[in-house]
């Protein structure tokens, strides 16, 4: 199952998709705090939250998982290895993609014997890229291609976030969070596009990771770190709105394995 806890956390806002497993009363453990954003046990929205809740999901088919080949790694045989007596010369970091790493082999995923640090016996290269054919959300995908592309910069497609910190003018906001705007109410705010992230180090924008006006951004169709692979291609023509303008939206040519 999949659940989470909030311990004395206040003034939270949950939006978009919220997916939990089937752990009886433990899907959401919310203790303490003012306006924590969710209701204890039920995961219902609290305060200003407007999340769309799904329960009973399973990640059993969400990830590529165990691999049987890795051309970049020099230490595996068909994806496995025996824990080395010495780490000298063992390849811990070279893999076919950035979502791979060594872990305990164990039985079929998901199982408790897949967990904990690999310190003895047989290890396996695991790939945490998303897999095609995931039906763990009532025959629908849990993580892959579950978020919609937002091609208009209007209020429906954007979020305004107020940052915690001391600021008295625009210069202070720029120092606190690049790209944020002083709103004359003693805080700094950033308005950004949903389901997208700024493409960093492209000499465009402020490199704060949020998809804001006049930036080139990556459409993020998946829940989680993996957002596709391959070359970057257009995600569609962006139309300026009343909250964000001038965005160029890209996506990866391939999503999933």
Structure explained in plain terms:
- With about 260 residues, the chain is mostly beta strands.
- It contains 1 helix and 15 strands.
- The strands form 5 sheets. Strands 5, 6, 7 and 8 form a 4-stranded antiparallel beta sheet that branches. Strands 12-13-15-14 form a 4-stranded mixed beta sheet, with no helix packed on it.
- The longest helix has 7 residues, at about 170-175.
- The chain is globular and about 60 Å long.
- The protein starts with a strand and ends with a strand.
- The mean pLDDT is about 95.
Short key terms for the protein model shown above:
257 residues, four-stranded antiparallel β-sheet, mainly beta, globular, single chain, four-stranded mixed β-sheet, 27% strand
Principal-axes geometry comes out as globular
The number of strands is 15
Q: Determine Rg (CA atoms, Å).
A: 21 Å
| Largest sheet features | 4 strands, antiparallel
How are helices and strands ordered from N to C?
EEEEEEEEEHEEEEEE
Query: Structural class per helix/strand content?
Result: mainly beta
* SS field, number of helical segments: 1
Q: Strand share of the residues?
A: 25-35%
What value does the average pLDDT take? Answer: 93
Q: Could you list the spans in which at least 5 consecutive residues all have pLDDT below 50?
A: none
Give the N-terminus to C-terminus distance in angstroms: 24 Å
Question: Helical content, roughly?
Answer: under 10%
